Structures are given as C-alpha cells and as structure tokens.
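Please, structure for the following, as tokens.
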Amino acid sequence: MIRKAVLPVAGFGTRCLPASKAIPKEMITVVDRPVIQYVVEEAVAAGIRDIVLVTSNSKSAIENHFDTHAELEASLEAKGKETLLQSIRDIVPDDVNIISVRQGEPLGLGHAVLCARPVIGDDAPFAVLLPDVLVDNGSDRPAGCDLSGMLASYAQTREAQLMVEEVDWQHVERYGIVAPADEAPEAGSAADLAGMVEKPAREAAPSNLAVIGRYALPGSIFPLLAETPPGAGDEIQLTDAIEALRARRGVQAYRMEGLTYDCGQPLGYLEATLAFGRRHATLGKDFRSLMSRYRMPEDPACGS
C-alpha cells in the first residue's frame, strides 16, 4: 500500500488574492479549520503516514500549524479548556510524520513534485494531493474513501492512477480532460487511458472526465520529471511526465464517487463552506438555521 504523499504548497495563490497576500491560501479557513487540514485528514484516513509538504519561504504558517505549540497547549490546559486542547493535539496523529522540503523557485507542479524525490525515493510509490482541492465523500461514506479506492487500484494494477470526476460538457475547457482507451470507468473503478488533453474546446474534448488533483504514482516518475523540459507557462508540467509514463507502462483514470470543491478560487471556497458547514457535528444545526435567514428569493439581488 502507498504510505507516502506529496502536498505541493509553495504557490502564490493568486486566484485567492487579496486574501492570500499575507496568509497562505492553504490556511484559509473552511468552517473551523484550514483547507490543508482537511486534505491531510483525507490522506491520513486513506492510510498515508508520511506527508511531504513542498513549501517555500513564505509558507511557514503551514508548517507551524502542524507543529506542536507548547505555550498554547500549556495555557489551554491551565484554563481547563480540554476540548480546545484536544482539538489542536489531534491535528496530526502520533504515527503520522509531517516533512517539509523547499521549492526554491516556482517552476511548476512537476518541479514541486520532483523536489520531494530525496524524501520519497525512486523505488516507492506515492500519492500527490493538491491542497486547494477538497474531496467531499458526503456524510454517509467514510473520510478519505475515494482516495483509499484509488490507492487500492494502484496496489492491484501497479499502474499510475489519476482521480477524475464527471464535469458539465460546457465546462471541459477549464480542466485537464482524460481520453479513456476504451470505455469510461464506472464510479469507484479505473480504466486505461489513451492520453490527456489540457483544457480542450468542447468539440475537441475526448470525454467529460476531469483530473481533479489526486494522483497515485510510481517512484519511476522522478527520472521522467528530471528529464521533462519546461512546457506550458515555461514550467515543468506533471502532466507531461505522466504522459511519458503512460507511453512506457500505462496510466489509468480512477473515477471518484464523491464531489470536489476548488478552494483555490472564491466560489469554490464558498461552496465548500456551505457543504461542510451544513453538516458540521457541532455547528451544523445552527449554521443551517442561520442560512435559512438569508433565503430571500423575493429580493431582486438574489435572482429569480
């Protein structure tokens, strides 16, 4: 089983400006915790035990969030605030390691993943989780179950896996779209790929299955990344290395069953807040009541 994951967190977060000017976009809060904590919880629930943060010199807040804060813990303990104390002690289980490596220059997602090579090694498979994408398995499915399913598919086939979800055909130009080699996979299963197309026009899209920021990759991707020249945006693209991998040993698309929220842009963040807030264990009831006060269809500003 895959036990290691890479989370690239070194980007500027320009889609979240001005909120991300001084605060890492990954630390913007959805209900009661930063976005990246949800992603780490997803990884841990799927069996990941070594989490490599590929960070930069402006992202120390992320490392601090997952570190021990002795003074705060002592203060909460002295004041008898046991619930709050436990909430910060439980951010990372004792058997999970948070490891940070630096990406000195913003040279693309592929380069960020390559920065984790000394920690992961060329022989071990690993996962990549984009930290601004939240995967919502719903209230009736275990946390991290889509990721668990993708990792299990890798364990069975030993082929790289790209998690995909179905999107509206009119929006395919916003995503990386996969081209299944044969039939598209059913939800909760994987299928071989013939290739990928980055942000295709509607009429050129081979499917409406979009890559959503979860990958299971063999360590052999690292030599390919090291040889990958700059591509789109003059950056080293992970998709270019994955395409080279596909040509050599095959790549599969794993179709998720849940939903995703792109918290790297404001509307996705707001949607995630609504979804997670409505069913929050302690705040959900009051949040739903609060939202009912803002349902004003008669207000012209709300539309028809």
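The CA atoms of residues 29 and 35 lie 6 Å apart. The chain has eleven helices and 13 strands.
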